[in-house]
Amino acid sequence: MAQFLGREQLESTLHSSMDLSHSDIKGLEGELKVGDLLAKHLPDDTYVIAHPSIGKYDPDFLIISPRYGFRLLEVKNWNINNISNVYSNGAMRIASNDQTRNPLNQVKKHIDEFNGYLKSLKISSLRDSYKLVGFGVIHIGFKKSDMQQKISNWNSMNRESFFKHHLFADQLGNNLDYLLEKATKYPYYDRRVMLSPTTLKQIVESVTISDEITYDNSQEVSDKLNKFDEKIAKLEKHIETIKNGNSEEIKVTIPLPPVTTEPVIKNPVKTEGSRQGRGKQKKSKLKSFIPAAVLAVLGIGAVWFFLPSVKSDTTKPTEVAQTTKKTKEAPDKQDIQNEQPVNSNIKEQDNTTEPTVSNPTYTNVSDLITNASLGDYVELKATVQQFTYDQGSGTKFIILSDGQTQVDAVIFKGTDVPFINQGETYTFKGEYNEYKGKKELIVNSVD
């Protein structure tokens, strides 16, 4: 039987607060049930930690095993009849509120923070820790067979990828440890990097239990805060552009919608040795939401006031018409989904510019291989069939597929890309080239 840390906090929150909504109660009951099953069926040397403080947001559970490392888990206590559609990227359409939720993406957000947390511990014996971090979603409200009926029309590759990271009520039994071991991007890691008893003890002793617990509404708050962060980043870029004397104008709007959430449930019980500031950033960031927006707007006004030359260039139509500098507008990425997309790769022209050129876009690998020329900068929508990582060089090697044709892709160290999951479909942008007689895509961005 595994050691279950944080159970008392969950149980205390469930029974001590009178402000819990029905969904909060259902979420807590689901977590307690899952935690008890994890503790019951995982080996004695394994730790089950509820709501560990590892960053801005806490995963529902962290599993620490000496055999395969770490697993970050999200728990959902949904009814299968309330799920109207399921998508291969893990998203699900909820019938009761007609919204799409993606618990798999929710748990993936914890991975980078947890890797940073492990590095901050500075444990010399903990090398290549990112290879030991897996993730998954546990659906305690229904069985695997219920989900199989929902996705019976999927191809085998998508089904296999989906069930690798989704577990169900009837799977929380004697085979649970094996299923959690498989829930990783690195199934063939070097067995020599497993956690020694000393290393495991150091990590467990450093982890603290969060003293704040939020539920389903936390995803909505997270999404709104992330959108706000993007607005602030655009404002900062705009200010930097003005300081550098560039007359490019970037239009940025900052909507400040009211953020309504269910009450945050505080638990006064906190594990000893907790690190100051961890587990409290969710609330503090929300409190600074509106003041930060006000400061950002005041900052723009200040820059406009103290740079009259720039101000005049952007406010007098006659002068703008005479200048040879071009301006353009950057569309807000968070605009309504039905808005027509803007191709950012099309260059605006004046009387002296070259003809407009756009980057070729391919929706399958076959068209890319048939029509693209070496040296072309292209966009390709394809599914990740295989993903490998070279530890020595830091390079990621990928095989992309459209279901029939394959092409190699490479992402060199230092290229900023999101978390890439085998079996999922992305849009890859980069240079179509050749290496040792074999065509490949040198990727520099992924959407």
TrEMBL record:
**Membrane keyword on record:** yes
Q: InterPro entries, alphabetically?
A: NERD
Q: Where is this region: Disordered?
A: 263-283, 315-360
For this protein, the record's Pfam families field holds: NERD
Q: What is this protein called?
A: NERD domain-containing protein
Task: List the biased-composition ranges (Basic and acidic residues).
Answer: 326-336
**Where would I find the NERD domain in this sequence?**
26-118
Q: Which residues form a coiled coil?
A: 218-245
Kindly indicate whether the keyword Coiled coil belongs to this entry.
yes
Q: Polar residues: which segments have biased composition?
A: 315-324, 337-360
Keywords for this protein: Coiled coil, Membrane, Plasmid, Transmembrane, Transmembrane helix
Membrane-crossing segments per the record: 288-307
